[in-house]
Each structure stands twice: as C-alpha cells, then as structure tokens.
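Researcher: Can you fold this with nicotinamide-adenine-dinucleotide in place?
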Amino acid sequence: MTTTPKILDGIAIAGQIKAEVASEVQALKASGITPGLVVILVGEVPASQIYVRSKVKTCGELGIYSEMLTPPESITTEEMLKLVTELNERPDIDGILIQLPLPKHVDTKRLLEAVAPDKDVDGFHPVNVGRLQSGQPGLAPCTPAGIMEVLRRSGLPVAGQNAVVIGRSDIVGKPAAMMLLNASATVTVCHSKTEDLPSFTREADLLVAAIGRPGYVTADMVKPGATLIDVGINRLTDAAEVERLFPRDADRAATFAKRGSVVVGDIEPAAFAVSGAYTPVPGGVGALTIAMLMQNTVTAAKLRRGLPVETK
Ligand code: NAD
C-alpha cells in the first residue's frame, strides 16, 4: 500500500520558531536585556549581501538589536581580528556572525577561532563543536539545528532510527550526524569516498542529503516510506537538466522561462514520491537557518547572563 508523502513545511516551522523567539525577546526586554547581533559582511558578494540583509531584517522583526558591518574586500586578517576582538568585548553584543565565504587572503579559520565561543552564534568555534559532541549547552550550527527542529516539530521519530547523512562538511554534515547521534539515532555518515553509497542509503529510515549536487539521490536509492531531509541548494540554468529533474512540471518550466534558473536540492523530486515525508527545496530546511540564528542569538544572550536555557 502506498501513502501520500508528508511535506515538511520549513516556512511554517520557521514561523513558529520566530514567533517563540519574538516572545522570548519581549520577556528579556522586560528585564532590561536586549539581545544584539552583529553581522560582518566583507566585500561585495551578491549572494552574501542577500543573506545578510535578510538576517538583519529578521532581527528587526523579532525585536533583536542588530548591526551590519561591511569592511572592504581589501581588509587584512589582522584588521578583521581587531574588529572581532572589539566586538567580543562589547557588552551589548551577544552574537557575532562572520558571513562566509571570506576573501581568499583572509585566514577564515583563525578568525572563526577568534570569536568568543559564547558569542559564536554560527556554532563553528571548536569550543562549541566540543560542547555539541559532549552534550553540553552551547551554540549549535544553525542549519543542522534546523533539521532537528523539523523532525521534532513534525513528530517524526529519531531515536532508534537508521539515519544516513550524505556529506561531512563542518557546517552541515558532521554536526547533523552528531545531533542525530545525540538524539539516539543509529548514524552512518557517507561522503565522496564512500563505496557503494546506495547500499547505505537504501537502509536509511532517515536520510539527510548535504552534498551540493543537483538531484544526486535518485528514487532507487531511497527506502520506501523513509524521511528525506534535503539540505542542498543548487541553481539549475540548463533547460535540459530542468526537464530531466522536473519532467512535465509546468510551474517549474514557467519559473525557468521567467528567471532563467530554478533551484533544486540534492534529492531528485521523483524520490520524494516514494518517501514517507520530505523537506521540499525551496521551502524546507533552507527556511529554518535564519530562524535558528535568531534562536541562537537569544540563547547566547541568556547563557552569557547565566539565565536558564531550554534544552531539547
Ligand atoms: P560542502 O561542499 O562543504 O560538502 C559537501 C559534502 O558532500 C562533502 O563532505 C563531500 O564529501 C560530499 N560529497 C560531495 N560529492 C559527493 C558524492 N559524489 N557522493 C557522496 N558525497 C559527496 O557543502 P556544504 O556546505 O555541506 O553544503 C551542502 C549543500 O547544502 C549545498 O548545496 C549547500 O548550498 C547547502 N546548504 C544549505 C544551507 C541552508 O539550507 N541554509 C546551509 C548550508 C549548506
């Protein structure tokens, strides 16, 4: 018997989280605390400008104080370190986010390690990586934290499930695997060197794809009824590729005709049909990342002041 797959609506879940964050911010303000976030955007990367503006706008909507700093492309690592040190010392700032990627001449690793761990709202500092690993309260990376919220708020089981994560980046794959493990899933991490990858994915009750390759996971790689979490964001600009991944999809064809591109995840749309539940692209995991950043900013504001933080 086949059932209709459940669409996991990231936009709706992000809305719930943002509403909760807004009321937490109101409660903090009532006791004289306004959470504050600084976003640093170096140079002129159009995609980064869009992300950063949207982060700053969401801060405004939720009552979080925000500043956007835009040093020129020519800034040196030393100058960036000085900027980060000043922000680490500012009492009114709870979160510091350095928008990646940085120009090649800037030492990204050194900078990320210079952010005070308690203000590291991206959750990339080794101290926060260690806290996640050892199950201590801290700041966790936003995209994988968003995946866990989708699962939790959709009532999907994690404990005891066979979870397969494709991708082992520090930003998505590795922390997602750690969070699933902390939630008692049996976790396998696959990557570019994995041999016979479909033999792993076909056993997955829960499959997370964070690869960066359009439609890489095909329907025959998926266990029927599995939960599919598609983290990939890939822009297709080739009409034949659009037709291959979205055959006879009039809406996508119209979007492509209008914009010259469409976005697809790492899981081919035909695979969603055999799943039990899935996150669409767009409108799935991607929608959660900013909401989780806002949540992390509030968590940072509370942790810095020794206030209790809800553990999930
Ligand atoms: P990355 O390039 O850092 O890592 C990709 C991973 O995929 C690597 O670990 C690699 O081992 C694995 N991989 C590559 N080719 C493979 C193959 N043929 N078979 C198996 N594994 C393979 O990418 P990332 O930063 O983790 O991002 C992954 C995707 O998620 C991208 O499409 C990115 O745009 C998207 N993303 C979305 C969000 C969001 O929704 N907010 C955030 C971050 C990343």
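Model: Folded with nicotinamide-adenine-dinucleotide in place. The CA atoms of residues 201 and 221 lie 6 Å apart.
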